[in-house]
Amino acid sequence: MAVDTAYQPPSPGSDDVDAISEDDRPGPSKRKSKTVRSREHGADESGRQAWEGMYKRSWDVVQEDAEGGLQAAVDSLIARGRRKRALVSETPLRRSIIRHLFIILDLSESVRDKDFRPTRFDLLLTYLRTYIVEWFDQNPLGQVGVVLIRDRLAETLVPMGGNPQDILAALSDKRKLEPSGEASLQNGLLMAKGGMAHLPSSSSLETLTLFSSISTSDPDGSYSIHQLLNDLVQARVRSSIISLSGEIKICRQIAERTGGKFGVAMDEDHLRELMWESIPPPAQTVAASTMGVRSALAAGGSKGAVGKGKPPPAGDLMIMGFPTRLPTGGETMCVCHGLLKKGGYMCPRCGSKLCDVPTDCEVCGLMVVSSPHLARSFWFLFPVANYDTLPYDVGMQEFGSLSPTCSGCDVDFPTVDELGLNMGVAAQADGVSPTGRYRCAKCKSDFCGDCDLYIHDTLHTCPGCSQ
Amino acid sequence: MTTPSASFPRSTPPSLLILILDIHPLSWSLLSSIEPPDPLDSPPPIAPAEHHYLLARAPIGPITLPDFLNVLLVFLNSHLASRWGNRVVVFAASAGKSKLLYPTAGGYDGEEGPKERPNVYSPFGMLDQGLERGLKDMIAEEETRMDDQDGEGLNDPPAIVSAMTKALCYINRHSPPPSSESTAPTNETRILVINATPGAGSNSSDNSSSTKSGGGGMRGGYVGLMNCVFAAQKAKIPIDVLTLPPASTGTEAPIFLQQASHLTEGVYWRWNGRGGLLQYLHTIYLAPPALRQTPFSQPPQDAVDFRAVCFCHHDVVDVGFVCSVCLSIFCKPLPVCQMCK
C-alpha cells in the first residue's frame, strides 16, 4: 500500500518530452482518420507539430458577395462541411455485425489527474455511458462486458451481456469504481480474453482499453505480456487502446498486431472522437470459412444441440427464430427464470415464453431475435448511393422540366434568378451542388442539401426510389 | 409530480400531426363492400356484459372514402382546435405513388385562392378546402396515370413507405431535432398512418398470387419501413397506425406497420368495422403522446408479430437462416450468403 500511495504519476508534460521521438508522434496523425475534419491541433500533414505550423488565416478563405454580405459564404461553408461528412465510400465492405466487446477501464491512481476536465475519471465515466448507448444503438446484436484494472489486478465489473441497462447501472455506481494503485494491462487483457474464450469465431471479438497510466505493472512470471500478445493475435481479438497520457510502445504494438487502433487523446473532444471511431462495425478482414451450412442445418435439426453455454456452430448461416411479443395481459411462467411475469416473447419453434430477446431459447436452443434487431443493420446492406450534384449549365438547360420543389421535404428550390445571384459563391464549393439540387441516379428525383444529408445519415432510404 | 402514476405535464407544446392517408383504389373498393358476417359464424358470448352485447349488436358495415373523409376532417379540425399552434400535414399514398396534399407546396396555382367563408374559423377552412383540393387533384392524376398504363400499376401496394420517408424529411426540415438534450422542449411531432390495405406488408406465403400483391410490396418496403422506423425512433417520433379493414373480413393484420408503431411507442389499433370511427379517432389518436398514459388511456396493444421477410423470396418467415456476417435473412439454407458472398 505504501508503494501505491507514494506513487505519483508524472505529469504528462514531462512524459511527453521523452516519449515523443522522431516517428513517435501523438497517435491520430499517423493513421489518417477516415472523416476529413479540420483540426486546429495535432501535427499537420507535412509532419510538423501543430505549434510549428503556419497559422492558417481562416478569414482569408471567406469571400464576400456582391453586396458585401457574408451570409452566402457562410452558408456554402456549412454546406461544404456537411457534404464532406455525407460523402462516404461506396466500396462494399464485409462488416462484422455480431460483435463482442470488452471495455477495459484503467482505474489506477492516474485517472484522478485533472488534465482532462473535470477529471479523467469523471470524463471517462460520462463518455462511457453515452458510448454504451450509442454502441448498442448501432450494434444491436453485440454484447459488451467491462473489465476494471486497478491495484495491478483485473476484475470483471460486468460480464459479457447484451443489456445496456446493466452496464449503465454498473457504471453509475461510483463507490465500486474507486481508483487505486497501478494498472496491469496484461491482467486486463488476459481477463478479457478469458471472458471471450467460449465465443464462436464467426463473431468479432474486440477489446477497447481506455488506458490512463503511462506504464503497466504486470505480474512477474513466465507468461509475459508479449506472449499474451501472441495469444491475442492467435485468438483474433482485435484490441484497440486509447491512451490518455502518452504513447506507450507496448500499447501501440498490441493494437497494431491485433488489428486494432491505437490513439492518444489530446483533449476531451479528441478522446470522444477516438472512442466514437470504434462504434461502427469494423470491416471483416478475415474471411470466415464457408463450411457452415451443414452445421447450421445440424443445429436446426437436432434440438438442444446449441444448448446454453455451448456456442452456436461457427459458420455462415445461423438459424434464428423471430418471436411473437405477447400482450401484457395476465402473468405466465417464463422458461428463462421460472418466474411469473407479464408480457414476454414466444419462441416460434417450441412455443415457450422468454422474458427478453435476443437470447437462446432455454427449451429448444433456438436463437431468438426480434426482426427489428436484425433490421437495424440493413442499411449497411442496402446503402443509398451518393446523390450527384446537378451542374449549373445542366440545371439551366432543363430548368423548365425540373420539379420546382425538393422530392423529400417539398421546400422550393432556388429559381433561375436566385441562382444567378449566388453563382459566384456557390460554384467554387467542392461537392456542393451549384443549383442546390442533389439528384438520385436511380430515380432521378432532386433533393435539397438538408434532405440529402438526412437521407444518407439517418434515413438510409431514398424517398424517390421507394415509391 | 408527487406520484409517478398521476404525473403528467400541465401543458403540452404545440404539436405537428403528420397524417399519411392510404387512398389505394382497390383497398377502398374492398372497404366499401364489406358485408356483415354470417351471424351463425360467430356465436355470441355466453354471458355478454351489456356493452359487449351492444357492441356485438352494432352491425359490421362498409365505409366509403367520402364518408371517411368527413370523419377525418372533423378529426383534423379538432386537432387544430385543441391547442394554439397545432398544425396538420397530410400525405397521401396511392398505388405506388405518394404525394403531399396539404399544405399545398406552391400555394394555389389557380386563379382563386381558398374562399374565405365568414362563418368558418379560417384554419379549418384552409385545411378543409386545401385537403379536398389536393385529394381531388391527386385522384385525377392517378386516374390519368392508370389509364395511360392500362391499369398496370393498380396492383402496386400503397406507397406508405415513400410517404413516410417524405414525412420524415419534412419533419427534419421544419422541426429539426434539438441540438442538445438540455434545450427547452420543442414542438411535438407525430405520424398517424391510416392504412386501408389489408395485410400490407404481410402475405400468406402459401399461394403465389398473394405474394405478388402483398409480398411484392415489401420488396424494398420492408427494409425501407424499418429504416423509417429507426429514423423515427431516433427523432422520438411516435408512429400511430389505424388499420381500417376489420378483422371480420378475414384479412391479415399489417404486421410491419404494427411493428413500426410498437417500436416507436405509437398506438396501433384495428377498426372493428362497427362504425364509430370518429369517436375512436378522438379517443385514441387525438391526445398528444405525453398525455396518452395519464390522464387518458390507450387501448391494450395486441400481440406483436416480430416476423421478418426473407431476402430471397420475400416471404414472411418465423424461423429463418441468418448470415452471421451481414445478417441477411433467408428462408432456406444456402451454401454461400447471397448478399455478402
UniProtKB/TrEMBL annotation, chain A:
<dbReference type="InterPro" id="IPR036465">
    <property type="entry name" value="vWFA_dom_sf"/>
</dbReference>
<dbReference type="InterPro" id="IPR013083">
    <property type="entry name" value="Znf_RING/FYVE/PHD"/>
</dbReference>
<keyword id="KW-0479">Metal-binding</keyword>
<dbReference type="Pfam" id="PF07975">
    <property type="entry name" value="C1_4"/>
</dbReference>
<dbReference type="InterPro" id="IPR013087">
    <property type="entry name" value="Znf_C2H2_type"/>
</dbReference>
<feature type="region of interest" description="Disordered">
    <location>
        <begin position="1"/>
        <end position="48"/>
    </location>
</feature>
<dbReference type="GO" id="GO:0006351">
    <property type="term" value="P:DNA-templated transcription"/>
</dbReference>
<dbReference type="GO" id="GO:0005675">
    <property type="term" value="C:transcription factor TFIIH holo complex"/>
</dbReference>
<keyword id="KW-0805">Transcription regulation</keyword>
<keyword id="KW-0227">DNA damage</keyword>
<dbReference type="InterPro" id="IPR012170">
    <property type="entry name" value="TFIIH_SSL1/p44"/>
</dbReference>
<dbReference type="InterPro" id="IPR004595">
    <property type="entry name" value="TFIIH_C1-like_dom"/>
</dbReference>
<dbReference type="GO" id="GO:0006289">
    <property type="term" value="P:nucleotide-excision repair"/>
</dbReference>
<keyword id="KW-0862">Zinc</keyword>
<dbReference type="GO" id="GO:0000439">
    <property type="term" value="C:transcription factor TFIIH core complex"/>
</dbReference>
<dbReference type="Pfam" id="PF04056">
    <property type="entry name" value="Ssl1"/>
</dbReference>
<dbReference type="InterPro" id="IPR046349">
    <property type="entry name" value="C1-like_sf"/>
</dbReference>
<feature type="domain" description="C2H2-type">
    <location>
        <begin position="440"/>
        <end position="460"/>
    </location>
</feature>
<dbReference type="GO" id="GO:0008270">
    <property type="term" value="F:zinc ion binding"/>
</dbReference>
<comment type="function">
    <text>Component of the general transcription and DNA repair factor IIH (TFIIH) core complex, which is involved in general and transcription-coupled nucleotide excision repair (NER) of damaged DNA and, when complexed to TFIIK, in RNA transcription by RNA polymerase II.</text>
</comment>
<protein>
    <recommendedName>
        <fullName>General transcription and DNA repair factor IIH</fullName>
    </recommendedName>
</protein>
<keyword id="KW-0804">Transcription</keyword>
UniProtKB/TrEMBL annotation, chain B:
<dbReference type="InterPro" id="IPR036465">
    <property type="entry name" value="vWFA_dom_sf"/>
</dbReference>
<dbReference type="GO" id="GO:0005675">
    <property type="term" value="C:transcription factor TFIIH holo complex"/>
</dbReference>
<keyword id="KW-0804">Transcription</keyword>
<dbReference type="GO" id="GO:0000439">
    <property type="term" value="C:transcription factor TFIIH core complex"/>
</dbReference>
<dbReference type="GO" id="GO:0008270">
    <property type="term" value="F:zinc ion binding"/>
</dbReference>
<dbReference type="InterPro" id="IPR004600">
    <property type="entry name" value="TFIIH_Tfb4/GTF2H3"/>
</dbReference>
<keyword id="KW-0479">Metal-binding</keyword>
<dbReference type="GO" id="GO:0006355">
    <property type="term" value="P:regulation of DNA-templated transcription"/>
</dbReference>
<keyword id="KW-0805">Transcription regulation</keyword>
<keyword id="KW-0539">Nucleus</keyword>
<feature type="region of interest" description="Disordered">
    <location>
        <begin position="196"/>
        <end position="215"/>
    </location>
</feature>
<comment type="similarity">
    <text>Belongs to the TFB4 family.</text>
</comment>
<feature type="compositionally biased region" description="Low complexity">
    <location>
        <begin position="199"/>
        <end position="212"/>
    </location>
</feature>
<keyword id="KW-0862">Zinc</keyword>
<keyword id="KW-0234">DNA repair</keyword>
<dbReference type="GO" id="GO:0006289">
    <property type="term" value="P:nucleotide-excision repair"/>
</dbReference>
<keyword id="KW-0227">DNA damage</keyword>
<comment type="function">
    <text>Component of the general transcription and DNA repair factor IIH (TFIIH) core complex, which is involved in general and transcription-coupled nucleotide excision repair (NER) of damaged DNA and, when complexed to TFIIK, in RNA transcription by RNA polymerase II. In NER, TFIIH acts by opening DNA around the lesion to allow the excision of the damaged oligonucleotide and its replacement by a new DNA fragment. In transcription, TFIIH has an essential role in transcription initiation.</text>
</comment>
<comment type="subunit">
    <text>Component of the 7-subunit TFIIH core complex composed of XPB/SSL2, XPD/RAD3, SSL1, TFB1, TFB2, TFB4 and TFB5, which is active in NER. The core complex associates with the 3-subunit CTD-kinase module TFIIK composed of CCL1, KIN28 and TFB3 to form the 10-subunit holoenzyme (holo-TFIIH) active in transcription.</text>
</comment>
<keyword id="KW-0863">Zinc-finger</keyword>
<dbReference type="Pfam" id="PF03850">
    <property type="entry name" value="Tfb4"/>
</dbReference>
<protein>
    <recommendedName>
        <fullName>General transcription and DNA repair factor IIH subunit TFB4</fullName>
    </recommendedName>
</protein>
